[in-house]
Design brief:
Blueprint (H helix, E strand, L loop, with lengths): L12 H6 L22 H20 L10 H13 L25 H25 L1 H6 L3 H12 L12 H14 L2 H7 L5 H20 L11 H10 L4
Length: 240
């Protein structure tokens, strides 16, 4: 396995290390099943997230396309992502939520972060990476840009990219790091018209961070934005 830089909490290094033994996701197939929320539902959704993460790691390490996943197989996966953008869940249209249909109106807010926004962030990262690194695949899939733009727009709906509860700022920083590592930040900085919603959101996060540093308005505690975290955000967002 090729060496790679640590990938951050949302794309965990330990998952990268075990990714060789994981079943590689061949297509994105969100759960169309109708089943009550319970112990069996959560592992299915978590597995989908982990398999998306694993695929992204193989892309970042440039092991895909390769012997374990051909260009044609990767194209098939991208086609499934484009075709399976959620349209059966009204509140999540344009996302890559991994929720079953009947879970739409019965989700706690932390589940929204993990099973709606996280897989959508991962989908945006995967499709953006492929668009930047393998244009031929992106151009061969109908509606690729249209669906990717919808994914960007949906991702920007999450105010400040923040998470839930006392994890909200940690999740925000992890998401920004992930966007940096996968080329999303550079792509949107260079092409703001591709998603004005995401571009404006990132500019707003940068502007708010600058103001907070100027005012030195920091309070220690759970769920609070630290001075160091604020500086790191600004470093990632320096081009906005």
């Amino acid at each position: 396995m090729k060496e790679t830089k640590p990938l951050g909490p949302l794309v965990r290094q330990e998952l990268y290390e075990k990714a060789e033994s994981m079943d590689r996701i061949e297509e994105f197939s969100p759960p169309p099943y109708i089943e009550p929320f319970g112990e069996k539902t959560i592992p299915k959704m978590q597995l989908m997230n982990e398999r998306l993460r694993a695929l992204l790691m193989h892309l970042l390490s440039e092991e895909i396309p390769g012997k374990n996943m051909s260009s044609e197989q990767l194209r098939h996966f991208c086609k499934s992502m484009v075709e399976e953008t959620r349209r059966d869940l009204d509140a999540f249209t344009g996302s890559w939520a991994v929720l079953p249909i009947d879970f739409e109106g019965h989700r706690p807010s932390d589940a929204g972060v993990e099973f709606v926004y996280l897989p959508t962030y991962l989908g945006v990262c995967i499709l953006t990476w492929i668009k930047n690194k393998n244009q031929a695949i992106a151009e061969s899939v109908s509606n690729y840009d249209r669906r990717l733009k919808k994914g960007y727009s949906f991702s920007a709906k999450k105010e400040g990219l923040r998470g839930h509860g006392y994890h909200r700022y940690a999740t925000q920083l992890e998401t920004i790091k992930l966007f940096s590592q996968t080329g999303v930040l550079k792509f949107i900085s260079d092409n703001p018209e591709y998603s004005t919603e995401m571009y404006d959101l990132l500019k707003k996060i940068k502007r708010n961070s600058e103001k907070k540093l100027e005012r030195n308005n920091f309070v220690e505690g759970w769920g609070k934005l630290s001075r160091e975290g604020c500086k790191i955000r600004l470093e990632y967002l320096k081009d906005f």
